[in-house]
C-alpha cells in the first residue's frame, strides 16, 4: 500500500496548518499499546483566538482558532480543535470565504485521531475527512488506507503540537504530517526573537517559518512566517503568508483564555 500525502489547502485555511517535531516520552502500560505523553502548558479547553484578516491593505474578514470542548476516542480524552474563517460583507462581494476545519487531538499524546476540512472559497468547494489509527499506524480517507509514521499529525493538530515545543532561534526540526493521500516532511525554521504589535497588544515573539519539502500546504508563491509569543503559551499573534496573488496577514485581536 502506498505511503502518505498532502494536497494543497487553499486561502485562509492555511492559518495554523503546519507542524513540528520534538522528543517525547513514551508511556506504556503492561499489555497495552505504548501511547506517548507530551507535556502541554501552551493551551487548554476554552481558549479562543480571534484574528483580523487582511488581504494586502484591505480588511477582508475574521479567522478564529478555538478549543470549544473535549471528545472521547477509543476511551481516550481528546481536544476538539476548531478553526473558522469568514470574509466580511465587503470582501464577500469579491471573494466569499466560509471555511471550517476541525481536529480531534489526543489530550495526553498530542497526536491526531480525526480531521475534517470544509472549504468554501469563491466558487471552490472541498470536503475532506481523515481518520487515524495510531496503533496500526494507518490513516483512512474516503478512498484510501495509507500507512503513516507513529503518532502522525494532521495539518491542524500539528500546529497545536508545535505550540508545546521549545523554539530556539537558529535551530530547525522536522515532522511527518498527513494530508490527502500521503505524508509530507515539514521542516520548521526558528529564525529570531522579535516584538510584534497587533490589535491585541504588544508581544515578545519568536519568529518561525514552516518549509514543506514537496507539493503541499506551503507550495505557494512565497513563504509563510508566523510570530508566536516567546513564552510557554506560544500563542500565534501574527501570520504573514504569500499567496498566488498578493499576501494575507492574520493579526490577533482578541484572546479568551480560561
Provide structural commentary.
- A 14-stranded antiparallel sheet has the order 10-9-8-7-6-5-4-3-16-15-14-13-12-11. It has a two-stranded antiparallel ribbon with strand order 1-2.
- A hairpin with a 4-residue loop joins strand 15 and strand 16.
- It is built from two helices and 16 strands.
- It has one domain.
- The N terminus is likely disordered.
- It has 258 residues and is mainly β.
In short:
With 258 residues, the chain is mainly beta. The protein has two helices and 16 strands. β9 (138-140) and β10 form a beta hairpin.
pLDDT average, as an integer? Answer: 84
| Sheet of most strands | 14 strands, antiparallel
Number of strands: 16
Number of helices: 2
What is the overall silhouette? globular
Low-confidence stretches: 1-31, 214-221
| Radius of gyration from CA coordinates | 17 Å
Strand content: over 45%
First CA to last CA: what distance? Answer: 44 Å
SSE-based structural type: mainly beta
Total number of domains: 1
Strand order across the largest sheet:
10-9-8-7-6-5-4-3-16-15-14-13-12-11
| Sequence of secondary-structure elements | EEEEEHEEEEEHEEEEEE
Q: How much helical structure, as a percent, in the residues?
A: under 10%
Write the layout of secondary structure elements.
Blueprint lengths: L24 E2 L9 E2 L10 E8 L2 E16 L2 E12 L1 H4 L5 E9 L5 E10 L2 E10 L4 E3 L4 E3 L9 H7 L8 E8 L2 E17 L2 E12 L11 E6 L6 E7 L4 E10 L2
Write a concise keyword list for the protein shown above.
2 helices, 14-stranded antiparallel sheet, 258 residues, mainly beta
Amino acid at each position: 500500500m502506498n505511503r502518505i500525502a498532502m494536497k494543497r489547502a487553499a486561502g485562509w485555511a492555511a492559518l495554523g496548518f503546519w507542524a513540528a517535531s520534538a522528543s517525547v516520552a513514551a508511556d506504556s502500560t503492561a499489555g497495552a499499546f505504548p501511547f506517548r505523553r507530551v507535556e502541554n502548558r501552551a493551551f487548554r479547553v476554552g481558549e479562543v483566538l480571534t484574528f483580523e484578516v487582511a488581504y494586502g491593505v484591505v480588511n477582508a474578514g475574521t479567522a478564529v482558532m478555538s478549543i470549544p470542548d473535549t471528545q472521547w476516542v477509543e476511551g481516550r480524552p481528546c481536544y476538539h480543535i476548531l478553526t473558522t474563517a469568514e470574509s466580511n460583507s465587503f470582501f464577500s462581494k469579491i471573494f466569499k470565504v466560509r471555511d471550517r476545519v476541525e481536529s480531534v487531538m489526543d489530550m495526553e499524546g498530542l497526536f491526531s485521531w480525526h480531521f475534517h476540512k470544509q472549504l468554501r472559497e469563491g466558487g471552490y468547494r472541498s470536503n475532506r475527512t481523515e481518520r487515524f489509527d495510531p496503533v496500526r499506524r494507518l490513516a483512512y480517507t474516503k478512498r484510501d488506507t495509507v500507512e503513516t509514521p507513529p503518532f502522525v499529525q494532521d495539518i491542524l493538530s500539528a500546529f497545536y503540537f508545535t505550540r508545546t515545543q521549545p523554539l530556539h532561534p537558529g535551530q530547525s526540526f522536522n515532522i511527518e504530517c498527513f494530508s490527502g493521500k500521503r505524508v509530507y516532511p515539514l521542516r520548521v525554521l526558528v529564525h529570531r526573537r522579535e516584538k510584534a504589535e497587533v490589535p491585541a497588544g504588544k508581544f515578545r515573539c519568536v519568529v518561525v517559518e514552516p518549509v514543506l519539502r514537496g507539493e503541499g500546504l506551503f507550495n505557494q508563491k512565497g513563504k509563510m512566517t508566523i510570530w508566536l509569543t516567546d513564552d510557554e503559551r506560544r500563542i500565534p499573534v501574527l501570520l504573514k503568508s504569500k499567496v498566488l496573488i498578493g499576501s494575507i496577514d492574520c493579526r490577533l485581536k482578541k484572546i479568551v483564555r480560561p
